[in-house]
Predict the 3D structure of the following.
Amino acid sequence: MADVMTHNSGSQHVVHYGDAAKKQNESFSPGRSWSHDGITIGVSPPCGSWELHFEADTDIVVLPKAGYGGQRAINSDKAANYENAPNDMYWLPTGTELYSVGKSAKEVVYVKFDRSVRNAFLDSVQDAPQLNDSVTPIKDVLRHHIYTHLLMSFVDTNGKFGGRLQAESLVNLLLLEICMFKGMRSKSDVANSLSKPVMARVNAFIDENICSDLSLAALADVAGISKFHFSRMFMATTDLSPHKYIMQRRIVRVQDSLANTNECLSKIALDKGFSSQSHMTSVFKRILGVTPSNYKKSLK
């Protein structure tokens, strides 16, 4: 969800929010937004059906004005049905991978900002929690209705009455809301890294089950800690979410098969734990910048 750029591709209208592509059956005007010095506040317009898939390159807070539903996957290969209530708040920190598909949505208010903005806020708040994990949704209809109104007013006036200072204040309000939802705790509880022996056990388990549908609960069980603490400590160790880490290890296996076998791509995909050839191709290209077929051609 970044600055909006539009173009027509055949009969289909495509709207890009950063790396995201939002496909619709009906045309609509570009969203409106205000951007300055690492902060963007915007309003995505109503739309018909859409498919959205991206990896967040900044922190993002999303506030749908009205309820809508569809299917969604967050840092996961499996999409599940979901239903937004009006003014639900969603927190998508940098690196979150989101896939969402649905048939209809009203206006959606979004705020995106550099991670440095988040860090500056956390440094100023005593006992602030870490905010490395996505939160969906946070429910407080009254407060979120006020936030939505303030954010939309800010965009509609192009920030001329408050500028950067007001934008930062609005971002801090949202971050404080997320912190309160997650629960304030002592900074001494900041995630430590996993020890080398624990990480070795986790890696061995991942490699042994790379083709399976690995769960966070199973990985946390191997590490001997709770899912919540495992996720934070794993990211502190690898700078990657468990999902992204597993995807990268699967892609290494795919590279090996492409280099040393003549197996068809569909078989390689299923053997390496991907749900389909298209899923493998999408992940492969996102990580390596080239499709599996072109990668194999380059090896000849």
